[in-house]
UniProtKB/TrEMBL annotation:
Species for this entry: Thermothelomyces thermophilus (strain ATCC 42464 / BCRC 31852 / DSM 1799)
Region Disordered: start-end pairs: 34-60
Organism ancestry: Eukaryota, Fungi, Dikarya, Ascomycota, Pezizomycotina
Full protein name: Pentacotripeptide-repeat region of PRORP domain-containing protein
Biased composition (Polar residues): 37-54
Residue stretches of each PPR repeat: 579-614
Membership in a protein family: Belongs to the PPR family. P subfamily.
Pfam families: PPR_2
InterPro entries, per the entry: PPR_P_subfamily, PPR_rpt, TPR-like_helical_dom_sf
Length: 825
């Protein structure tokens, strides 16, 4: 194909295209026609390279063309004379020895100029607009309006520059108007899609790419690669630079997970196209090659670039740091150390943290661990006071991963005591280090960093040194393992937890000076898995109630009801009193297992016989165990039992001494109570519960809760058309009840315009009671008919003194508000 051309230098791009009016003004009698010259070139099938698009004698150079264009624009177009039509046949060589006759001049112009019809039309339209504008300005000058013409000329030039200023990168670099030309036919579609992407105004908006820009850039470029490979020379340098800028971007929170893969492919394409890479691009391409699996080839490319990249001040540091990282990952620690020494001995400020990859590579092998420690001490000396806690954390993590716990402990001691204590090689640790407080700080830091395996190695190491870790730290490790959710970590957590339970049982046995407990003989202790090839770790830290709670919660969430029952049997033998948390987990487990009666029996046994004090979570669990909350298909007989059970639970809840401990339970418990009674159709119990919770919980039903109760309990669970209609109907019902309440206030003498906060809260309670009566079909009943029924329900629910008698002492004594629940729901 002939060289790629484009419109006017106003588009900030060099081009060999010359507009027709300029050619006519430049053409002389002795010059050969440009059309005939192009025709002969096309007939020969020659395809000049992109770098030789401007031939001597064919067209004016760039500066001369700019001058001619400026003069043409300043003075306006001159009439041109046509030399007559030429009868010329046009041919194009599409394959060696194969010529195809072109239809007309338009197709010849498209083939010879590398421009598709869309670009040709745009150029012609631009020429016509410029000629029209020049004529208009020329007429204005002839009419004596030179100043106005000059002003319009400047404004027109400014508009053109703004319209074709192109893309601007993050470092204010100008990419011009980005477009790939020279492709036609069916294969041109992916290139057209790429061009459309490059032409978007939203791409790299503000100079910074977005995650969407990166994803779509690779989408369109990867689709066009096969077509572009047929004529790489048609891709302009600016397009390559723009693609590299987007696909290599990793800053400002932009997600680019396949960055190195994209860079590797793009660099190969640029090499195939003969496009030279900048120094920074070469370094990034070498790194991408290494990460994509071509490790030896990348290292060889890095070696060959030592003269160019390794000696330039701009790339010196990046070059040698890249070599250190690659050689360490490849296992060539000797070359990595030499590269690091070259970097550290240079005149540029050394970055001693380049030794971290060397420390990691040396510590991975048992025979070079001592060298890793020497590299760490060297780095620590070079950093001096600038060493950070993160540096120490990384060093300790490296030695822990390599099972060199003693070196890791020494690094942590260096951080805590400024290298004043040496613990290496000691059988017993110094008192300042060998205590569970100091070890607890380390374990807490490791668990917080997520290095759970390293924390377990520390537990084993310090116990071998005669230090028993605190149960608080081990419970934290068990909880972190359980929260991770992986099967391997769950097994490790159970193994450590049951090891602590064994230590607790051994302690009980030793304290009582009795024979081994029957629990061991019965074999009911769950077997824990042992890792093959590793010695069994016998934990000496004794389990606490928190240890049992962690296992109970995990077994309950995993619905391992039998394991939970075994855990409670062990709890009695360990002589640890059950807590309300453990009781709640067992109640919930029975309820999930379909044993609601057993759950209630367990609650009554543990609260009355074992004197366990229930809390808000206990009653939330009990209300959730009702059949109306468990079963999809309602059973009328079970629903009747639920009414009595719900009233009994409410009576116990009011009588028990407990306080709300979190905003979550403060929001969940009142809602669960109301909906449980609504599902069971205990409307009298609902009204009494709402009145009692107003006094004891400071509960005020929010409007959203009222709408949900009016529309149905499940109306918010699924966003379907039916549920949206139910919600709309519920809102209308609540609005009607609010209007009714305000009309009653107006009849009682209230102005009905402005309401105090207390009056608004009372309005919500009144609307709630009106809604309950509406659902019960008793909205037309008088107060005298309803109140006796409510008093009977209040006595049954144990709140007569609170709801009916309004005993201030009883209300103050039964309040459940805690420090964290001092506001309305």
């Amino acid at each position: 194909m002939p060289p790629r051309t484009f419109a006017l230098d106003l588009l900030s791009r060099r081009s060999s295209y010359v507009c027709k009016s300029c050619l006519d003004s430049l053409r002389t009698a002795s010059a050969r026609p440009w059309l005939a010259r192009s025709s002969s070139t096309a007939a020969r099938g020659s395809q000049p390279s992109p770098g030789n698009s401007k031939r001597t004698g064919d067209a004016p150079n760039h500066a001369e063309f700019q001058r001619i264009l400026t003069e043409e624009f300043e003075r306006g177009p001159e009439p041109t004379s046509s030399s007559g039509d030429l009868d010329v046949n046009y041919f194009n060589q599409e394959a060696p020895g194969k010529l195809r006759r072109l239809r007309d001049k338009e197709e010849f112009g498209e083939v010879s100029g590398g421009l598709d019809s869309e670009i040709e039309t745009a150029i012609n339209d631009l020429e016509k607009k410029m000629i029209t504008t020049a004529k208009m300005l020329q007429r204005m000058e002839k009419q004596g309006e030179r100043d106005k013409a000059d002003e319009l000329r400047k404004q027109f030039k400014k508009t053109l520059r703004m319209q074709y200023k192109g893309k601007t990168g993050p470092e204010a670099e100008d990419y011009g108007l980005l477009r790939i030309s020279g492709f036609s036919g069916p294969r041109q579609r992916p290139v057209a899609n790429l061009n459309a992407f490059l032409a978007r105004d939203s791409v790299v908006k503000g100079g910074i790419p977005r995650s969407r820009d990166v994803a779509e850039c690779w989408k369109y470029y990867s689709a066009a690669r096969k077509t572009l490979a047929q004529a790489w020379h048609n891709v302009p340098q600016e397009v390559w630079n723009f693609l590299w800028m987007i696909l290599s971007w990793e800053g400002d929170g932009v997600e680019n997970p396949n960055r190195m893969q994209h860079i590797y492919i793009l660099a190969k394409d640029m090499q195939a196209a003969g496009v030279p890479l900048r120094d920074s691009q070469q370094l990034l391409a070498i790194e991408a090659m290494f990460i994509e699996g071509w490790e030896e080839e990348a290292i060889e490319a890095w070696k060959k670039a030592v003269v160019t990249l390794g000696s330039k001040p701009e790339t010196f540091t990046d070059y040698w740091e890249l070599g250190v990282r690659m050689c360490c990952l490849h296992g060539d620690t000797d070359r990595a150390q030499r590269a690091a020494e070259t970097l550290l001995r240079s005149s540029q400020p050394p970055n001693a943290r380049i030794l971290l990859p060397i420390i990691r590579a040396l510590a991975a092998k048992r025979e070079t661990v001592d060298q890793a420690w020497e590299s760490y001490t060297h780095m620590r000396t070079l950093l001096g006071e600038t060493i950070t806690i993160e540096d120490y954390d990384e060093v300790t993590a490296v030695f822990l991963a390599s099972d060199c716990v003693e070196y890791a402990l020494q690094a942590f001691v260096d951080m805590m005591f400024s290298r004043a204590i040496d613990v290496r090689g000691r059988t017993r640790l110094p008192l300042s280090v060998g205590n569970h407080f100091f070890i607890g700080k380390w374990l807490k830091r490791l668990i917080g960093m997520g290095d759970l395996e390293g924390a377990y190695k520390v537990v084993v190491f310090v116990q071998d040194k005669g230090i028993t870790p605190s149960p608080i730290q081990l419970n934290g490790l068990i909880g972190a393992w359980l929260r991770s959710g992986s099967a391997e970590n769950l097994e490790k957590a159970e193994t450590l937890a049951w090891g602590m339970i064994r230590a607790r049982l051994d302690h009980v046995q030793s304290r009582q000076r009795q024979d081994p407990v029957r629990f061991y003989k019965s074999g009911s202790m769950p077997a824990t898995a042992k890792t093959e090839g590793e010695p069994e770790f016998v934990c000496r830290t004794r389990a606490t109630a928190e240890t049992f709670s962690l296992l109970a919660e995990n077994y309950c969430s995993r619905r391992l009801h039998d394991r939970l029952r075994e855990l409670f049997e062990v709890l009695n033998q360990a002589e640890i009193g059950p807590t309300s948390f453990l009781m709640n987990q067992l109640i919930r487990s029975h309820s999930q297992n379909g044993e609601a009666d057993e759950a209630v029996r367990l609650y009554e046994t543990m609260t009355k016989e074992q004197n366990i004090r229930p809390d808000g979570h206990t009653f939330l669990t009990l209300f959730n165990s009702l059949s109306v909350n468990r079963l999809v298909q309602r059973d009328p007989d079970l629903t009747k039992k639920d009414i009595a059970s719900a009233r009994r639970f409410f009576r116990d809840m009011v009588a028990a001494e407990w306080k709300f401990d979190s905003p979550e339970i403060f929001a969940q418990l009142p809602r669960t109570i109301l909906f449980s009674m609504l599902k069971a159709k205990d409307y009298r119990g609902m009204i009494i519960a709402a009145r009692a919770m107003k006094e004891l919980f400071a509960f005020h039903p929010p409007e959203a809760l009222l709408i949900e109760m009016a529309s149905g309990a499940g109306s918010l669970q699924v966003r379907s058309k039916r549920n949206m209609e139910r919600l709309v109907g519920g809102r209308r019902t609540i609005e009607a009840l609010m209007r009714k309440h305000r009309m009653e206030l107006i009849k009682a003498g209230h102005p009905g315009v402005q309401m105090t906060e207390e009056e608004k809260l009372n309005e919500l309670h009144d609307v709630l009671e009106k809604l309950i009566l509406l659902k019960a079909g008793a909205h037309n009943s008088s107060q005298e008919e309803v109140e006796p029924l409510l008093e009977e329900a209040a006595r049954e629910m144990g709140v007569y003194d609170i709801v009916v008698a309004k005993d201030a002492d009883q209300i103050a004594r039964r309040r459940k508000l805690g420090k964290q629940t001092a506001g309305p729901v």
